[in-house]
Amino acid sequence: MNAKIIVNIKNAKEIKEYQNIGIQNFLVPLADFCVGYDELTVEDIKTIKNDFYLLINRILPYEDLEKLKSIFASLNNNYLKGVFFEDLGVLELIDELNLKWEKIYFPNHFGTNYASINAFFKRGIDSMLVANELTKEEIEDILDNVNKDVILHVYGYNQIMYSRRNLISNFNNEFDINLPLENTITEKVTKKILKIKENQYGTVIFDENIYNNLELLKLANHVKFYYINTSFLTVKQIMQALMNKRQADNNSFLNKKTIYKIGDKNE
Questions:
Q1: pTM (2 decimals)?
Q2: Do the beta carbons of residue 10 and residue 34 sit within 8 Å?
Q3: Which CATH homologous superfamily contains domain 2-157+210-266?
């Protein structure tokens, strides 16, 4: 079961811990090119002696795409298998440099149907993340009709907003306070306590509940990886989740269709 699970790591030492519970696929967030993740520097990444995938989830200006050229050259070794990216400019850069890496499109909310996913495959993408605001039936429909294997998000705090603004820092400046850049906020209407994480490139807000779709591990057709977002979680917590010891976690979308307009209630 764990052979297709992929986890984002916070440091190179975690790799051994995850290997001890059967996880062999690792996603490494690249420092200065990610928002909402604990990142590793290029120097840290060079110490990794296991196969891994690189994560770049920022929307990038042209000058940062230029910086990636030298970074890609320095990391072009047998351990780096591919790149997860949100900015399609990264796809163009990999093709331009003729790098033989897997190209994996990693948007949070775009992979909602097999037609659009297959359209991205035609652009040369090797795999893509399926949006997690879908019912199990909708996910199964995608798996039955995609032309290549895709990635399912099965566990972790769900990213609900990404802003290129420094929201906490702006708040600190406005009210002359010093709140930490990894924090929680309370939404006034619902009273939800949301996790928030900022770095110099932007801010990400996460749902208050852990998104638990581990039942999707039973689906095998056209699945490349089952993704676990380990942000705010320890290796021990991930292990407990895989052993089915976290029954209180939330899997809101799988069994309840999202209502977008009043007419949907009658469907």
A1: 0.91
A2: no
A3: Phosphoenolpyruvate-binding domains (3.20.20.60)
Range of lowest pLDDT (29-33, 76-80, 111-115): 76-80
Closest residue by Cα to residue 113 from 152, 159, 146: 146
Paired strand residues for 198: 203
- Tokens 């949006």 correspond to what residue? 131
Give the bridge partners for 7, in sequence order: 26, 228
Give yes or no for a contact between 68 and 40, defined as CB atoms under 8 angstroms apart.
no
223 and 150 Cβ atoms separated by less than 8 Å: yes
The enclosing H or E element of 75 equals: helix 62-75
Whether 212 contacts 246, CB under 8 Å: yes
Taking the chain, what is the end-to-end CA distance rounded to the nearest angstrom? Answer: 35
* DSSP-assigned letter for residue 129: B
Task: Give me the pLDDT at residue 197, please.
Answer: 92
